[in-house]
Amino acid sequence: MSDVISITKKSGSFQKFNWSDDIERSLNKSIYHKNDEMDIDSDEDEDEKDIDTLTSGATTSTNNSTFNNQQIVTPGELVTDDPMWMRGHGTYYLSNMTYSSVAGAVSKVNRLLSVLPLKARYSPETGDHIVGRITEVGNRRWKVDIGAKQHAVLMLGSVNLPGGILRRKSENDELQMRSFLKEGDLLNAEVQTLFQDGSASLHTRSLKYGKLRDGIFLRVPSSLIVRSKNHTHNLPGNVTVVLGVNGYIWLRKTSQMDLTNDSSSTNLNSSTASSTQGPTGSINTNSISITRLEEESSWRIYSDENDKNITNNLRKTISRYTNVIRALSMGEIGITKERIVTGYEASMAFPNIGSLIELNNMQTICEDVINAEKMRGNAI
Amino acid sequence: MSLSVTEKSYLYNSLSSSPSVRPDGRLDYQFRAIEITTDFLTSSNGSSRIIASDGSECIVSIKSKVIDHTVLQPDDSLVEVTLDISGQRDDSPMVESISSLLREVYSKTIDKKSLTLTTKYSFKLYIDVLVISTYSNPISLISMAIFSALNSTYLPKLVSSFDDIEVEELPTFHDYDMIKFDVNPPLIFLVIIVGNNVFIDPALNESEIANNSLIITWNDNKISPPIRSLALNDTYCEGFKPQLLQRSMELVEKCANGITAMLQDDK
Amino acid sequence: MSRLEVYSPEGLRQDGRRWNELRRFDCSINTHAHTSDGSSYLEQGNNKVITIVKGPQEPPLKSQLDQTKATLNISLNITPFSKFERSKTQHKNEKRILELQTILIKTFKKNILMHLYPRTLIDIQIHVLQQDGSLLSCLINGITLALIDAGIAIYDFISGISIGLFNETPLLDLNSQEEIVMSSVTLGVVGNSEKLSLLFIEDKLPLDIMENVLAIGIAGAHRIKDLMDIELKRHAKERLLKQSK
């Protein structure tokens, strides 16, 4: 294979042409060809049976006990005629019967019945740590693209303004909103509340939130990010990742603040840091008190200036992490700090970072990550 | 998509530094991975579909028609290219500039002789390009799609005689035998200039901070006209030094043969 | 084509099908995962259709914003190379295309639970790469699949089918040659029910055998629904298997 370009070639019909195409799929496909011509004649019943047996044969090959007990439904399908269930998302109700409105697995939690679609846009929940991009500066509010059905709102009153907490708000702030955050700016924030229509209102009233600097942005399907206590992780190689619950990801040079946050969290929970031997474990000496930082939070929190000395090696490391996360995303593997670190270590087998964009190298990394988990015995 | 100021300056510093670092770690002459499917349109003489790893997608159909070339004007071409970019109006600047470039490249480079049937009749080729989604400038992707479509094109086999000036007959073709259309189509490359560095096949975020970019055509194993400069963004765009044109051409020369070979490879 | 060749005395159509046979029906979903919320690729006979759903998303134009429900936009692109003979014009803004778009929007507006997505836009793009009769019914099937793939809540499948009438014999799922020589009906059938969300007749049809024609159409549409359902469930299992890894 040349190092200039990698090309995957196919000929003929491109039915089932997904990037993550596997043999299993093409095998299944042949089933349909057997029924090239469908009879709906008087022998319909017989024919129907034919199709049924064929498909059940196909599904047993992919069937797995882990979702055997999960009922899969498609829109219009009767989920239950039992009126005791509360109807959640993905269902609708017609004369005492509950039908599915999406394709997916039926979920029954207590008395709440819902159907979880296989794929959907990110839907915000209160407390989510997200990464977003400003799309509009409006009247006392910013509109933020967070990859949801609607843009989120960030109110002027929900951000820390230069000058610390004791500062008084003035009309002047309204006029200079663009000098804090403007169109295109990226920030991380927390979902404060949800409006009636499901759209989110954000806040950045903590020093861990705010404008993002010193790195690059990438995006993965939000389903791959699992909600957890902490979404900012310091990685080996002096890199910090912000894994937005909405699938927006920011990779940056680890800042003083990241180290401070991390050392305080390591004290509480030492097990999380034990898996990595980066600078994370060793730093404790020059930690700055949070209150001091708060005093210092001046215009700097809205600065558009990156750190002056981001070395070339650090940039390369960030590029490598970018490719590792893309590989995990391509393999549809849930993205966690541990997996990113394992993937990063596995990627060292490829000295040329650019070779990680090739499909088979991405697959190798995914396999390594899954195998590593199996070895440790904590495969999910 | 608009990038934030900090993203742009990070990218600019990474790409303009020496040695440079691309956001996805690619080498300066390295392309993004692509996937090509050919021969999926049964009612066209040739077809191809190309998907880049960022999801950009382009479909090309080649159809032929028999025409009387004796009535053609000298400027008339036997190759017609149309371009449709999904979500863009036909008269948008991007569509117009790309289609004029495509017309220029393909109507001049495809040899008229290869399409001649008889002394009176020729094939006329219709190259229809549909760009289903695109993020960065799709010109390079389109040229690769046209390349693979032309390489998978089969034309009907002539069974009547070549010399038909005297006998006023229409050309007749074999019932099912087809002949592979033998061409070596040109490729078009896009190179961006950032500071003193040049890069091939820019991704969207790289295009956003390019100081300038060059469209370079590769035909018949060498660089050939048209070569054009193109502004990909409003903020970073500026003039470039002539040495960088030289470097860009060297970059294209470095990878063009490899690409051609990969695209022609019938595996 | 002479009228005799359309349906032989032995009961065979030109492509070898009997009167009640569908053409090959091959579909897949999630074909454009990188660039869309939902997508499908459908081959029905020689028809080849790509459908791409974007949304529900923030509408780019304020005029597309409805405070109470979603706005649905469908744009249909019939490529100049889609027919056997290449057409000279780009079809955009042709009356016929605009009409088809309106029909599709009206049909699916009623089927999507639009009130769940206030202040958003659902944008559907269709690219017809190749066509060979029964185009409208293919478009309907493609949209149904792509909407389901996008996880957008709908009441039920809508499956499209065309039926032609040849000397009092109804023929199911017409190809382009049959479509030229006979009158035809296009139906959009709701799920497994006998409800029609769309009835589209452009030619003259004798009313007395209409009921019979509809019954055959509905049976054909149910078969198409089953085929789509099989593919969706297969896809769902595959995805759940992946997620459980």
Description of the molecule:
Chain A: Residues 121-192 form the RRP4 S1 domain. Chain A: Residues 53-69, 261-276 have a biased composition (Low complexity). Chain A: Residues 72-109 form the Exosome complex component N-terminal domain. The complex is a heterotrimer of chains A (380), B (267) and C (245). Chain A is α+β, with helices and mostly antiparallel strands. Helix content of chain A is 31%, strand content 22%. Chain A is built from eleven helices and 18 strands. Chain A has helices at 23-34, 44-62, 171-175, 177-180, 256-268, 270-274, 279-282, 290-296, 312-330, 337-347, 359-376; strands at residues 7-11, 72-73, 78-80, 86-87, 91-94, 97-100, 104-109, 112-117, 129-137, 141-145, 152-155, 186-194, 200-203, 210-211, 215-219, 232-235, 239-243, 248-253. In chain A, helix 9 packs across helix 10 (337-347), helix 9 (312-330) packs across helix 11 (359-376) and helix 10 crosses helix 11 (359-376). Residues 16-66 and 266-288 of chain A have low confidence and may be disordered. Chain B has a single domain, classed as GHMP Kinase, N-terminal domain (Ribosomal Protein S5, domain 2), CATH 3.30.230. In chain B, strand 10 and strand 11 (222-230) form a beta hairpin. Chain B is elongated. By secondary structure, chain B is α+β, with helices and mostly antiparallel strands. Chain B contains five helices and eleven strands; from the N terminus they run αββββαβαββββαββα. The radius of gyration of chain C is 18 Å and the shape is globular. Chain C contains five helices and nine strands. The model of chain C has no long low-confidence stretch (mean pLDDT 91). Chain C has a single domain (23-244), classed as GHMP Kinase, N-terminal domain (Ribosomal Protein S5, domain 2, 2-Layer Sandwich). Chain C starts with a helix and ends with a helix. Helices cover 30% and strands 28% of the residues of chain C. Chains in contact: A-B, A-C, B-C. Strand 1 of chain A pairs parallel with strand 1 of chain B.
